[in-house]
C-alpha cells in the first residue's frame, strides 16, 4: 500500500536501499563461498598463486579501465540512447585495445614477469589475466548500460546467477585441484555473464570502435581520478608481493584467506549508507546542514556498533571459522592477531567511506586524492619495514595503520559546514565494553577449548557487544525509527 502522496510506506521506501545492500551481501557470500571451495581443494601454495592472479588481474583492470566506467555513469545517465550507445562502443573499444597492447608487451617476458608475479613461468596465467581483466571491464560497462536503461533488476539478477553458477563450476576443482582450472572456470564464467548481459542490453549496443573524440570529455573527467584507484589498489593488495618475496606463496595463501573473511566488516558501509544517507545531497543543496550532520553521525555510530561487534567475533572466532571452511594448513599460528589487524583496517576503511560523503558534497575530491596518495606511501613503507620480520602479521598491521591514517586525516580535514555528533562518551564506553568482553572471552576459553566452544563464545560475545551498544546509547533504535518515519512523512 502506498501513501496518498504516492511516496509509499516506510518499508517500501527502504526496499530499494536494502535491495542494493542485498546485492552487495550476495557478492560477499560469493567471495566467501569461492574462498572456501578453493581452499578446500587447493594447497596453501596453490591458493597463493590464485591470490596473486587475482591481485595482478585487479591491477591490470584498474590501470586499463582509465576509470571510464565512472565517467560512463556520470555522462551517460542524462544522454540519449544513441549517445549512450556511441559512448559505450568507444569505451569498450579503447579498453579492448589497451588489453591487447598490454598482452603484446608482456608475453615476450612472460617467464620473468610470471616468476615475479605468480612464482610460475609460462604465458598461460598472463593470458588468463588479460582475459579476466577484459571480460570484467566489458561486464562493468554492460551493467552500467542496463542501469541507465532502468533495468537494474535484470542486471543484478544476471550477476547473481553468474555467482551461483561460478560456485557450482568451481566444483571441478574436486576432480582437478589445480590453479589453472580455477582460472579457466573464472574466465569462462565471466565470458558467459558478459554475453548474457550483452544480449539483455542489445538495444543500445554497437560494436567496439576506436577513437578519442567521442570520449574526450570523459577522459578529462576520469583520468584525474585514476591515481586514487591505483593508490587504493596499493593499500589493499601490494602487501601480497612483499609476502611472496619474503615468506613465500604459502604465506600469501594463508594471509589472503584471512583477508577475505575480514572484508565482511567494511561492507556494512553499504547498509548504513543506504538507510541513513540516501537524501543528504538534497539536504545539503537545500542548506539543511543539521540534517546532513545528523544522518552522517547516525551512520557512523550504527557502523561502529555493528562493525565493532563483528570485529570482536572475527577476532575470537578466526581459528574455527578458517578450520571449518578450509584445510587445517590455513589455520596458522597467530591467525587471530592477523584477523584482528586486517579486520580493524577494514573497520576504519568503512568509517572513512562514510566521511568521504562530506567531501563529495563540498566538492573537494582533491583532498581525498591527497589522503590516498599519503596512505599509499605509508603502506609501502610499513610493508617494507614489517613484512620481512613479521610476515603476514606485519602486512596486517600495515593495513590497519594505513587505513587508520586515511580515517584520521579525513576526520581532521573534513569540511566544517556540517557539524558531526560522534557521541565520544558513548563510543568510549562501547570500546571499553569490547575490551572487557574480549578479556572475559579469553578467561572462559582455555588452551584446550574445542573449536565449537570457541565459535560459540565468539558468537555470544558479538551478540553481547550489540546489546552493549544500546545500553551505552551508542545506537538508540527508537530514535532511529522516529527519524526514518519523519523522513518518510515529509517526503524528504
Structure characteristics:
single chain; 492 residues; mainly alpha; 2 domains; 0% strand; disordered N terminus
Number of domains: 2
Overall spatial form: globular
Alpha carbon gyration radius: 23 Å
Structural class: mainly alpha
- Strand fraction band? under 5%
Uncertain ranges = 1-8
Instruction: Give the N-terminus to C-terminus distance in angstroms.
Output: 19 Å
Assign a percent range to the helix content.
over 70%
Number of helices: 21
* Beta strand count: 0
On the 0-100 scale, what is the average pLDDT? 83
Order of helices and strands: HHHHHHHHHHHHHHHHHHHHH
Main sheet overview = none
Short description:
By secondary structure, this protein is mostly helical.
Task: Give an account of the 3D structure.
The protein is mainly α. The protein has two domains: about 1-15 and about 240-490, no CATH class; about 40-225, no CATH class. About 80% of the residues lie in helices and about 0% in strands. The model is unreliable at about 1-10 (pLDDT under 50).
List the helices and strands and how they pair.
Blueprint: H1 10-41, H2 44-65, H3 68-76, H4 81-106, H5 110-117, H6 124-148, H7 152-169, H8 179-200, H9 216-222, H10 226-237, H11 239-247, H12 249-262, H13 268-276, H14 280-285, H15 289-325, H16 335-361, H17 365-390, H18 392-412, H19 424-444, H20 451-471, H21 477-490
Helix pairs in contact: 1-7, 1-13, 2-6, 2-10, 2-12, 3-4, 3-6, 3-9, 4-6, 6-7, 6-8, 7-8, 10-17, 11-12, 11-17, 12-15, 12-16, 13-15, 15-16, 15-19, 15-20, 16-18, 17-18, 19-20
